[in-house]
Amino acid sequence: MMTAAVESESQVVKRGRRNWGEPAMRIAATGSAIVILLMLAALVVVLFVAAVPSIKHFGPGFLMTSTWRPNPLPVLKLDAHGRSIRDRRTGMKVVDHNEPPRFGALASLCGTAQTSMIALLLAVPLSLGAAFYLVRIAPHWLIMPVSFLIEFLAAIPSIAYGLWGMFVLGPWMGGPSRWERIFGILPVPAGIESRFAWLFLQIPGLHWLAQQRIGTRVVPIPTTGRDVLVAGIILGIMIIPIITAISRDVLRNVPRAQIEGTIALGATWWQSCRETLKYSRSALFGAIILGMARAAGETMAVLMVMGSAAVVATSPFMAGTTMASQLAGEFPEASTNDLHRGALMELALILLVMSLAFNVVARYLVVGKSARTSAAH
Amino acid sequence: MFRFLHAAAAVLMLGAGIAAADVQIQSGGATFPNPIYQQWIKDFGQAHNDIKIAYAAKGSGAGIGGLLDKTFDFAGSDAPMNDDELKKAQAVGGDVVEIPSVAGAVVLAYNLPGFSGDLNLSGPVVADIYLGRITKWNDPAISALNPNTNLPATDITTVHRSDGSGTNFVFSSYLCTQSDDFQTKVNFGKTVNWPTGQGGSGNAGVTQAVQKTEGAIGYIELNYALKNGIPFAMLQNNGGKFIKASPQSVSAAGEGAVKDMDEDKTLAVRLWSRDGDDVYPISSFTYLICYKDLSYLNDRAKAQAIVDFFWYATHDGQSKAADLTYAPLSSGVQQRVEQAIETITFNGHALHPTNK
User: Fold this and answer.
1) What is the pLDDT of residues B196-212, one digit of tens each?
2) B65 contacts in A (CB within 8 Å)?
3) CB neighbour class for A370 (10 Å; exposed up to 12, middle 13-18, buried from 19)
4) B60 → closest Cβ in A70, A175, A333
5) Residue B304 to residues B73, B292, B312, Cα–Cα distance (Å)
6) A321 φ, ψ to 5°?
7) Residue A11 phi/psi, 5° resolution?
8) ipTM confidence score
9) CA angle, A63 as apex, A57 and A67 as ends, to 5°?
10) Alpha-carbon dihedral sign for residues B20, B24, B26, B32
11) Using an 8 Å Cβ cutoff, are A220 and A147 in contact?
12) Entry pTM
């Protein structure tokens, strides 16, 4: 035993002398780490530089206005009789001067917050419930396949969720209230939104949830199935796997001693469970924040189901937009206009800083907690 | 290590194999003409084994951006370059030529269950619908265009393209010519701030939104509508006639535009709201754009290949247009295009097309 160890050690030393493995590995690994840091720094710098025209032009007001108008608005030239003049070449009226484009992030900021909130309302109870079931209730043979399925859900590309939202969920939620038959047999209620809208209109004080103001008139919002609510639900479905997977790991890492301790003290099963949850609540909160970060940064699915309107939605049935989806939708055609490009870059910068903050907080809560626990052992 | 080197060498050789073509042209831009550009590139490549053209359908704006930073040797764009872009181009490469390659149209799809027959619309009415002023299908303004029909009292939901696109540019430009209020309140552009309604991403997104929403109206490209059998409205032209969009009624608009091509020696002209009996009013060209002086490429063969490709596209290539539901160039436009292609130079010499 002793000799074998000595022998292998000397072999290691010999081999180490003979090749360049160790320094090469050191340099490669250190280099990789530095490159990753540099990439993040480059990303921030590039975004900031590109955003400068917008930051200079709009200042902090960018965060407080919702007008998103990438084109200038013309003021027409009038002739001596106060009439506008037609330009034969363009077919339009002659322009005296243009009001410059205006950009404000409020609509997409609100849209991001609203959809993320709806997503959390849907995903948190389901994910925590599923995680708790997997750790404390599920029979042994079921844990593996269910865990596998949840991780599989996390791997589905977001555009697939988007397509499903666009062709299945949206049409089912929107439209007039009706019955539809699944596979031509099973009848299910459809037009869910118009049912809710009807309900809101019956309850005094909730009318505003189903109405909007156009000019001076207050009219019911058409329930189209392409709105804040549907986008929120799609995001909720998308973040269920990530919250479930992390909270399952968190709950599984609760020290055995902790659980046995509660039972030893005479706690019932339910009391013991409550203690477990209390013990890991900050890590669970971290899991939720990671899910929220994913929801806030999601692009394609939102672009496909949210109706893309740069307005602050006052009702779940109104179309809206999020920062990420606005970026994806407009960037390809904005590349030659510095201000438009700058405004989109500023959105990207806000998004980057936001997700960085989310991740730092979540990491502190998830990892910090378990590090503190393992240190205590 | 040696194995790694072998692999690297193999990859390099593979790259060299792909690069066997003598002339490689990078281009990109508008998505609308992408199907026919790919067809042309394929056909042109079969006739010229030594030339390889790549066209990336990234959007008109990206195409012009690529031309400005010279990552693209030529660009495709649905909207001609605006003053700002022309100024930037002037600074980096001088004058540009914008050559119409094919024409397309924007049509209005609608969803009115129970309404049979063709729906007639006019420019001012469509402008008021998109301004949110006409909100019901049985509005007197719409009924007046559709006598003896049963228009329902359904609310109108307008659907627009949410992504920046040439389709937005053409449609909003057309409405600007039809309504002063539209020009001053919305104006035109690849992304405009619509006062009402909902966005859909791409032709598919708009179509889906229209088909799933009772009372919806949305604008899509003609060739998308034809390919997918989507019904669309007839539109009143300058002469007061209601016209169904078709490659023929779009090509007809080109003739009316030829006279404007003379004015300041650019081929970038509006095709919408043109006079003519059988002209569909929301038509537009899509353009192939390159610098007039191609000396900066430092490669005469490459410059020649671009010119030859432009010539092919606007001549023999035109016969492919109708099959792919694009409107071919009319003969008057083609003459102007020929003159424009002849103005492209390399080191001070005109590059006459070799495939004339």
Assistant:
1) 888 888 888 899 889 88
2) 335-336
3) middle
4) A333
5) 12, 12, 12
6) -150, 160
7) -65, -40
8) 0.72
9) 75
10) negative
11) no
12) 0.80
